[in-house]
C-alpha cells in the first residue's frame, strides 16, 4: 500500500482559549514522585464467559479466576496498610461480594473507607448513552449501598478508542478525571514527544467548559513495566546479599530508567506507573513483595532521585493538581484507534451485528418495561412488586455485562458471544413477564400476554395461527403520540383489523419475502404518549384488508408518497434519485453494495483483517448485473424488492406520510468458497459537494464532524480506507450548503465517506484469519443479518428534527403484546366482549415537546421513582428545538401524584441543588430526579 505523508500544524487546531504553556522539563534536582498503581484488568467476558472468568473454569483457554484475585488482593491489603489496589469490574465484584462473610465484608469496607481499595469505573465500545447510563447507575447504586462511596475516576485502559460523550457522561457523574490507554499510535507518539499526555478534554460542543474532563493517556499500555511482571515469571527481586543471585541494584537501575522515560512525557514531576495486567494479582503477594523490595531499595538510595509509593489515580490526580501545571485543550473524540501501521481497529464497529442490534433492542425493551411497571404502581411491600424487580434484575445484569468493551464490540470468542445472547434472552423473557404483569394491571385484564421475538424473521405464532381474534396491545415508551406501522406474518388473506372502538381499520397484505406461504399484515396503530393502544386482529373476510401483489418492472420506476419521491434508473435498475416533495429538494443519489476483501496479510506486513481490525485488500462490487425490480404498490406501504446477488437482497420502503425511506438489507451467509474473506458495505453516492467532510454521532448524543485524511498531528497513511472509518451508533450525514443526506441506523456500524458525496456503512464481516490481538479466532460472521437504515433528504435547516425523532423511535420501539380473545365473546360483527370491559387505550403522560425525551422512569426499592429527562438536540442544531427546555416535573406525569422530588447526579448517587417545579434542561443535557409519590 502506498504510504502518503501529511502534516497539519497542530497549533491551528487547538482552540485559542488554550492556556499558554511554559514547559519546565524536570530538572536534575527534581525528585520524581512515582505512583505505583496496582490493578487487575478483568474483562467481563472475552476468551471465556463472565462466569468462567469468575470461577476459573476453562483454564486451558486462559488462566484466569477473578474470585481468587479478589481473595488474594484483599488479604494482601489487610496485611499491609501501605498497599493500595484499584478495582473496576463491578460485575465480578458483585459476584464475589455475595459470597463473603460479614467479617470479610467489614474488613473490605474498612479498606475502601481508608482509600486502600478504590473503585473506579470503566467500559465503552460502540455504546449508546442510554445503555452506558444504565450500566453505570447499576454499579454506582451498588457501591453507594454497600460502601457509601462515589467513584470519581474513569479508567478505560483497554477500550479501543474513546467517545466524546463518554467523557461528558463521566463529568455528569461527578468524575474528576479520565485515564485511558488506547489512542492512535501516531497521536500517542506526538503527545509523548511534546509532553501532551495530559490535557483538558472539551468533550461537548453544547456543554462547553461545564463538562471539561481532565484526561491522562497512559504512556504505553496498562501493563507492568517490561521485565517486572512477576506473576508472569519475570526475574524476582533478590535484595539479600547473603543469598546467591543478588540483583536488586541492577533491577532498580532498569526500573528507574523506565520511570524516567515516562516522566519525560508529562509537565510535572509525578509519574504514574501501572502495575498489573489482564487477570493479574491472583498471586497478589508475589507482586506486592517484589515491588516492595524494589521500592525499599530505590527509596533508600537518593541517587535515583525518585520516591516510589503505592497510589491510586485519585491520589495521583490530587498530587498533579498540587503542582498545578498548565494543560491544553483537546476536542473531538479518539476514533479511530490504531496501534501501529496497517492496524486500524475499525472492524469492531461492525463485528457481530446481530449482537449489537439485540443489545440495543433490549435496552429499549428494558426502559419500556420500567415505565410501564412504574405506571402500574405496584407497592414495594407487595410480593408481586418484589417478584417483578427480581425479574428486572436478570436483564439489568445481562445488559450491564454486555456493555463490556469485548462484548458489544463483537471481539469476544464465539462461545462468549453466545453466552451474552443467552443472558440477554433470559432477561428478555423475564422483562416481558413484567410488561405483561404491568399491562394486565393497567388494563384490568390479568397478566397473560404473549410476545413475538422473531418478527423481523417473519415468525409470530400469535398472528400466524390466527383462529378467531387476537388482541394486540402496543405500548409506546416515547412521550409523543406515535403512528406505528406493525408488520405481522399471517397465513390467510382473510384478516380484519379493528381498533378499540370497534372501527375496522384499513389494512394491507404483502406476500412475505421469506416464506411464500405467509403474508405480511400492515396497518397503522396510533399510540398515545407513554401509553398504549389495543387493536384486534380477526380471521374473517373483509373489504378493508386488501392484498398487494408484486409487479415486475422492466424499465425505470418512480415511487412516491405525499412526502418523498424515489426514482430507479431505467438502465441500472437501481435507485438514482430522491426528492423531498415538501421542500422541493431533489438529490441524485445511488445505492450500491460493495465488498472488501479481508486482508490475510501482505509480504511487507502480516496484519490480517479480523474481529478488531479492518484491513481491506481490494474493493469490489457485489454484482454488476442489473437487479430485477418487483414493486408492491400499496397505500400504507410502497415497497421495491430487489435481489442483488446470491446472498444479498434489499427492500426499499416508503411508509404512508413519512419523509424518510427505509432500506432493509438482508445479508445471508456470505460465500467464501473463492477463499476470500468479505466485508460488506452499503454505499450511497450523491452529487453533494462535501469537501471531505461528513458527520457521525457520538454515542447517540452529539454529532461529530469527520474529515477525510485529516488529523491534528503528524501522520502517515498506511491504510487509506480503514483509517477513514469511524463508528456510527445512531446517525450520520453528508451535507453541502443547502442539502443534507441523513442516514439513521438501527445499530452501531462502521461508517466512512471515502469520496465527496458518498457515505457507506458496514453491514456484515466474514474474515478468514485472526487479527492477532488476542481473541484467537477469525471473525467468521455466518449468520443472516437483516438491518434497516432510514434515509432522509432535506434542507440543512429541517434535517435535525427528522434525524432526532426517527432515531428516538428506533431506539425505543413500540412493545407489542398479544392476547387471545375468546371468539365466542364477540357478538356478530361487533366489538369483542373483551374490549368493553377493559381499559384498552391509556396514556401516562401529557405529550411533551419534541426535543424532550423521558429516558427513564424506574421504580427503586425504597419506593421512589428514578426519572431521567434528556434534551435530544445539540446546541445550534435547530433554531427552536435546540433552545433550553423548561418543564415542571410535577405537571409532566399526569398519572402520577408527586409528593416530593429531588434532582440528583446522573447515576443518582449524590443530591444536586435545583428546582423541580421549574427544571431547565440545556441542549444534550440529561437530568435525573428521585420522585416520591403520594400514598
Ligand atoms: Zn479488556
TrEMBL record:
It is an enzyme of class 3 (hydrolase). Gene3D superfamilies: 2.60.40.1360, Glycoside hydrolase 38, N terminal domain, Glycoside hydrolase family 38, central domain, Golgi alpha-mannosidase II, Golgi alpha-mannosidase II, domain 4. The keyword Zinc applies. Binds 1 zinc ion per subunit. One of its GO terms (biological process) is mannose metabolic process. GO terms for molecular function: alpha-mannosidase activity; carbohydrate binding; metal ion binding. Its EC number is 3.2.1.-. Keywords: Disulfide bond, Glycoprotein, Glycosidase, Hydrolase, Metal-binding, Signal, Zinc. Pfam families: Alpha-mann_mid, Glyco_hydro38C2, Glyco_hydro_38C, Glyco_hydro_38N, Laman-like_dom. Coiled coil: none annotated. InterPro entries: Gal_mutarotase_sf_dom, GH38_C, Glyco_hydro/deAcase_b/a-brl, Glyco_hydro_38_C, Glyco_hydro_38_cen, Glyco_hydro_38_cen_sf, Glyco_hydro_38_N, Glyco_hydro_38_N_sf. Residues 343-424 form the Glycoside hydrolase family 38 central domain. GO terms for cellular component: lysosome. Its cofactor is Zn(2+). Residues 1-18 form the signal peptide. It catalyses: Hydrolysis of terminal, non-reducing alpha-D-mannose residues in alpha-D-mannosides. Belongs to the glycosyl hydrolase 38 family. This is Alpha-mannosidase.
Amino acid at each position: 500500500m502506498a504510504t502518503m505523508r501529511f502534516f497539519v500544524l497542530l497549533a491551528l487546531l487547538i482552540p485559542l482559549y488554550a492556556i499558554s504553556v511554559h514547559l519546565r522539563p524536570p530538572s536534575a534536582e527534581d525528585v520524581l514522585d512515582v505512583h505505583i498503581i496496582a490493578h487487575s484488568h478483568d474483562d467481563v467476558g472475552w476468551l471465556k464467559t463472565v462466569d468462567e472468568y469468575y470461577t476459573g473454569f476453562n483454564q486451558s483457554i486462559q488462566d484466569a479466576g477473578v474470585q481468587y484475585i479478589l481473595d488474594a488482593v484483599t488479604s494482601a491489603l489487610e496485611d499491609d496498610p501501605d498497599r493500595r489496589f484499584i478495582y473496576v469490574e463491578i460485575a465480578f465484584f458483585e459476584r464475589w461480594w455475595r459470597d463473603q462473610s460479614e467479617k470479610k465484608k467489614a474488613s473490605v469496607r474498612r479498606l475502601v473507607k481508608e482509600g486502600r481499595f478504590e473503585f473506579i469505573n470503566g467500559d465503552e465500545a460502540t455504546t449508546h448513552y442510554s445503555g452506558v447510563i444504565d450500566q453505570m447507575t447499576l454499579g454506582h447504586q451498588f457501591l453507594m449501598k454497600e460502601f457509601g462511596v462515589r467513584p470519581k475516576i474513569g479508567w478505560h485502559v483497554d477500550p479501543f478508542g474513546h467517545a466524546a460523550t463518554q467523557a461528558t457522561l463521566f463529568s455528569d457523574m461527578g468524575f474528576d478525571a479520565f485515564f485511558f490507554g488506547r489512542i492512535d499510535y501516531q497521536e500517542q507518539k506526538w503527545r509523548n514527544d511534546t509532553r501532551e499526555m495530559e490535557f483538558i478534554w472539551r468533550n461537548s460542543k453544547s456543554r462547553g467548559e461545564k463538562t471539561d474532563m481532565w484526561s491522562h493517556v497512559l504512556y504505553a499500555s496498562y501493563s507492568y513495566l517490561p521485565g517486572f511482571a512477576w506473576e508472569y515469571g519475570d526475574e524476582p527481586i533478590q535484595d539479600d546479599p547473603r543469598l546467591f543471585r543478588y540483583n536488586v541494584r541492577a533491577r532498580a537501575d532498569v526500573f528507574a530508567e523506565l520511570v524516567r522515560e515516562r516522566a519525560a512525557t508529562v509537565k510535572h514531576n509525578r509519574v504514574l506507573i501501572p502495575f498489573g495486567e489482564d487477570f493479574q494479582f491472583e498471586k497478589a503477594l508475589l507482586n506486592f513483595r517484589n515491588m516492595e523490595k524494589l521500592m525499599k531499595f530505590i527509596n533508600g538510595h537518593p541517587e535515583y532521585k525518585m520516591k516510589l509509593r503505592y497510589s491510586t489515580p485519585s491520589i495521583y490526580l490530587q498530587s498533579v493538581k498540587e503542582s498545578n501545571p498548565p494543560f491544553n485543550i483537546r476536542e473531538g473524540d479518539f476514533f479511530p484507534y490504531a496501534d501501529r501501521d496497517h492496524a486500524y481497529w475499525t472492524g469492531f464497529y461492525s463485528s457481530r451485528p446481530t449482537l449489537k442490534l439485540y443489545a440495543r433492542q433490549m435496552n429499549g425493551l428494558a426502559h419500556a418495561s420500567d415505565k410501564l411497571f412504574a405506571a402500574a404502581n405496584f407497592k414495594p411491600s407487595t410480593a408481586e412488586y418484589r417478584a417483578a424487580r427480581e425479574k428486572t434484575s436478570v436483564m439489568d445484569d445481562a445488559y450491564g455485562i454486555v456493555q463490556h468493551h469485548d462484548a458489544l464490540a463483537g471481539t469476544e470468542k464465539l462461545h462468549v458471544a453466545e453466552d451474552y445472547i443467552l443472558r440477554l434472552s433470559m432477561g428478555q423473557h423475564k422483562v416481558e413477564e413484567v410488561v405483561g404483569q404491568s399491562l394486565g394491571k393497567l388494563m384490568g385484564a390479568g397478566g397473560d400476554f404473549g410476545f413475538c421475538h422473531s418478527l423481523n424473521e417473519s415468525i409470530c405464532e400469535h398472528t400466524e395461527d390466527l383462529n378467531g381474534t387476537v388482541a394486540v396491545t402496543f405500548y409506546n415508551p416515547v412521550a409523543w403520540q406515535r403512528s406505528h406501522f406493525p408488520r405481522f406474518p399471517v397465513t390467510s388473506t382473510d384478516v380484519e383489523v379493528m381498533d378499540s372502538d370497534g372501527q375496522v381499520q384499513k389494512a394491507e397484505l404483502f406476500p412475505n419475502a421469506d416464506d411464500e406461504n405467509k403474508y405480511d399484515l400492515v396497518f397503522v396503530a396510533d399510540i398515545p404518549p407513554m401509553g398504549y393502544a389495543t387493536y384486534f386482529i380477526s380471521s374473517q373476510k373483509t373489504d378493508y384488508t386488501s392484498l398487494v401483489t408484486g409487479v415486475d418492472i422492466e424499465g425505470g420506476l418512480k415511487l412516491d408518497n405525499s412526502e418523498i419521491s424515489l426514482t430507479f434508473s431505467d438502465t441500472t435498475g437501481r435507485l438514482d434519485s430522491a426528492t423531498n416533495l415538501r421542500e422541493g429538494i431533489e438529490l441524485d443519489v445511488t445505492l450500491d453494495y460493495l465488498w472488501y476483501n479481508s486482508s490475510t496479510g501482505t509480504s511487507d506486513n502480516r496484519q490480517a483483517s479480523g474481529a478488531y481490525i479492518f484491513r481491506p485488500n481490494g474493493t469490489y462490487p457485489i454484482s454488476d448485473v442489473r437487479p430485477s425490480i418487483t414493486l408492491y404498490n400499496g397505500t400504507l406501504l410502497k415497497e421495491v424488492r430487489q435481489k442483488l446477488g446470491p446472498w444479498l437482497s434489499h427492500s426499499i420502503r416508503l411508509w404512508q406520510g413519512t419523509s424518510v425511506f427505509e432500506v432493509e438489507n438482508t445479508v445471508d451467509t456470505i460465500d467464501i468458497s473463492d477463499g476470500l474473506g468479505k466485508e460488506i458495505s452499503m454505499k450511497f453516492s450523491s452529487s453533494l459537494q462535501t469537501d471531505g467532510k461528513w458527520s457521525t454521532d457520538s454515542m447517540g448524543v452529539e454529532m461529530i464532524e469527520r474529515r477525510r485524511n485529516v488529523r491534528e498531528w503528524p501522520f502517515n497513511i498506511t491504510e487509506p480506507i480503514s483509517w477513514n472509518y469511524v463508528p456510527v451508533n445512531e446517525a450520520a450525514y453528508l451535507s453541502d450548503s443547502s442539502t443534507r443526506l441523513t442516514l439513521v441506523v438501527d445499530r452501531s456500524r462502521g461508517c466512512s465517506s471515502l469520496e465527496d458525496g458518498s457515505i457507506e456503512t458496514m453491514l456484515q464481516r466474514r474474515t478468514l484469519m485472526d487479527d492477532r490481538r488476542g481473541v484467537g479466532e477469525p471473525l467468521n460472521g455466518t449468520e443472516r443479518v437483516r438491518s434497516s437504515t432510514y434515509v432522509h433528504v432535506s434542507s440543512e435547516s429541517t434535517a435535525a428534527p427528522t434525524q432526532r425523532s426517527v432515531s428516538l423511535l428506533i431506539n425505543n420501539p413500540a412493545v407489542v403484546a398479544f392476547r387471545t380473545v375468546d371468539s365466542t365473546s364477540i357478538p356478530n360483527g361487533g366489538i369483542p366482549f373483551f374490549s368493553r370491559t377493559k381499559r384498552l387505550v391509556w396514556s401516562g403522560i401529557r405529550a411533551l415537546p419534541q426535543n424532550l425525551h423521558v429516558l427513564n422512569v424506574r421504580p427503586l426499592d425504597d419506593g421512589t421513582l428514578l426519572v431521567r429527562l434528556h434534551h435530544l438536540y445539540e446546541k445550534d442544531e435547530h433554531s427552536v428545538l435546540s433552545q433550553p427546555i423548561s418543564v415542571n416535573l410535577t405537571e409532566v406525569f399526569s398519572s402520577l401524584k408527586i409528593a416530593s422530588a429531588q434532582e440528583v447526579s446522573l447515576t443518582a448517587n449524590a443530591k444536586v441543588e435545583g428546582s423541580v417545579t421549574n427544571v431547565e434542561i440545556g441542549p444534550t443535557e440529561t437530568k435525573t430526579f428521585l420522585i416520591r409519590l403520594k400514598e
